[in-house]
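Researcher: Sequence recovery benchmark, item below. Answer with residues only.
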């Protein structure tokens, strides 16, 4: 029987167990994987079980491994960025990362994305927010207040089906400029930090060797269309190059479990050593929470499009649901923050991208990802490797900031987009990305910059009222906490 006939004969009324056929029945492995995607039919908020409703294949190992490495690296970067601002120790970072791995692996990856709603992508880490953490701290922000506000805004978006609305309101040029700014600033920042680290240990040539190897490997992966391997492969090569050049490394995080009490994490002299947040902390983080959730929409939809590009056309039943993913990310954000975690949640790109290329649905790899996260947290030693400077910096470079830069440049397709992107870059550099996004979205939707035809098609609500409201909220919040140049804090 031909591949087309086998795929076309699937009865949508059959369960996965009834429709499943062994790989030996297919001429190629790709035909088998395509058929698996077609016969799965997930149901929203119903219990799903492995091998009854979905399979677990060897191909699920690659996205699970990439996701676990990405998770350790991303949460470490985020916790470390907070730790620097609040004067916390590396030991705090390690314990908080261990805690976040358990929160993500047990409570959300397996429970939500594998068992309850496999159409929701895993709740990962909001990489584009990492460069903003110094600004958040300088504005008087509190990690718990930030997490709760992001979660609340996210729930509001998901319940109102506002994800597609924000995508519509934030034009291609504005998004491109924002991503280019965040990518470029993060790229330069990570390279600078790697150079400073290699200089501090008296081996300045290490940073050159690591970055050169990363550029060559990443370029080759791009050439053969295997960039989904960038995080594990480039991180591995970076570690090997650094070790071969004589860089010291040792395992120090022993097996164990972190503190589980929120009172410990939000104590005055324990955990974050910040205490519980006050009203002023919530006010300070409003513009940053708005921006974080605003950046969710293009990110989430981009991951779904990545599935659509790699899955067969009949695989509608396994595609990611954007609004449900926002709901899970929002719940994960609020619960994780209250428990004491320092993560800011978003759709898990280091999982979805390799999973889509490997032609695997969300739940199978989610089970393996959850197990790997728990093992890494309990064993401890894998965290040391992922948090080692060469591995950490390279993983962020190829997993977050370089893709951000590339995606931003891809969005700038013509002169109108480049105009909007240029104004966005200018505005971001003038104040910060919160101000830049709000201002250029308003100007773009009103037709002052960017695509004038697009502006003419918008309703008054979309053209003026919503963008102006967002601008007033953002600028007002920035003014209250003293983040506008030359203007003292109004609070």
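Model:
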């Amino acid at each position: 029987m031909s591949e087309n006939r086998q795929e076309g004969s699937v009865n949508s009324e059959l369960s996965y167990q009834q429709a499943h056929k062994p790989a030996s029945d297919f001429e190629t492995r790709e035909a088998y994987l395509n058929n698996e995607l077609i016969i799965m039919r997930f149901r929203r908020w119903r219990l799903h079980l492995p091998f009854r409703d979905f399979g677990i294949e060897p191909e699920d190992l690659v996205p699970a491994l990439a996701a676990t490495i990405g998770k350790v690296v991303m949460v470490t970067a985020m916790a470390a960025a907070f730790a620097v601002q609040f004067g916390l120790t590396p030991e705090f970072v390690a314990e908080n990362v261990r805690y976040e791995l358990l929160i993500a692996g047990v409570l959300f990856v397996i429970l939500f994305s594998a068992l309850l709603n496999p159409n929701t992508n895993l709740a990962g880490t909001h990489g584009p927010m990492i460069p903003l953490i110094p600004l958040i701290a300088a504005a008087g922000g509190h990690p718990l207040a930030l997490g709760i506000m992001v979660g609340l805004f996210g729930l509001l978006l998901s319940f109102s089906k506002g994800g597609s609305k924000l995508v519509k309101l934030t034009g291609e040029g504005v998004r491109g400029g924002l991503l280019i700014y965040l990518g470029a600033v993060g790229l330069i920042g990570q390279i600078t930090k790697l150079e400073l680290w290699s200089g501090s240990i008296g081996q300045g040539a290490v940073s050159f060797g690591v970055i050169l190897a990363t550029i060559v490997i990443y370029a080759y992966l791009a050439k053969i269309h295997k960039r989904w391997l960038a995080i594990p492969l480039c991180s591995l090569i970076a570690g090997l190059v650094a070790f071969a050049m004589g860089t010291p490394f040792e395992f120090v995080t022993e097996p164990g479990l972190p503190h589980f009490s929120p009172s410990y994490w939000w104590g005055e002299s324990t955990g974050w050593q910040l205490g519980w947040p006050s009203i002023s902390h919530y006010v300070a983080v409003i513009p940053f929470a708005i921006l974080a959730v605003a950046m969710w929409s293009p990110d989430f939809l981009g991951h779904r499009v990545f599935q659509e590009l790699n899955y067969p056309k009949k695989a509608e039943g396994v595609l990611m649901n954007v609004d449900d993913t926002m709901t899970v990310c929002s719940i994960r954000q609020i619960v994780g923050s209250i428990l004491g975690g320092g993560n800011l949640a978003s759709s898990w790109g280091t999982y979805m991208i390799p999973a889509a290329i490997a032609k695997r649905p969300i739940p199978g790899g989610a089970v393996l990802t959850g197990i790997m996260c728990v093992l890494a947290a309990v064993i401890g030693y894998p965290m040391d490797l992922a948090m080692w400077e060469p591995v950490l910096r390279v993983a962020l470079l190829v997993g977050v900031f370089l893709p951000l830069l590339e995606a931003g440049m891809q969005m700038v397709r013509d002169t109108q987009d480049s105009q909007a992107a240029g104004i966005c870059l200018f505005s971001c550099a003038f104040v910060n990305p919160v101000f830049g996004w709000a201002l250029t979205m308003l100007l773009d939707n009103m037709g002052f910059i960017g695509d004038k035809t697009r502006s003419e098609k918008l309703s008054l609500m979309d053209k003026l009222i919503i963008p102006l409201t967002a601008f007033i909220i953002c600028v007002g919040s920035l003014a209250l906490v003293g983040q506008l140049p030359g203007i003292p804090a109004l609070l």
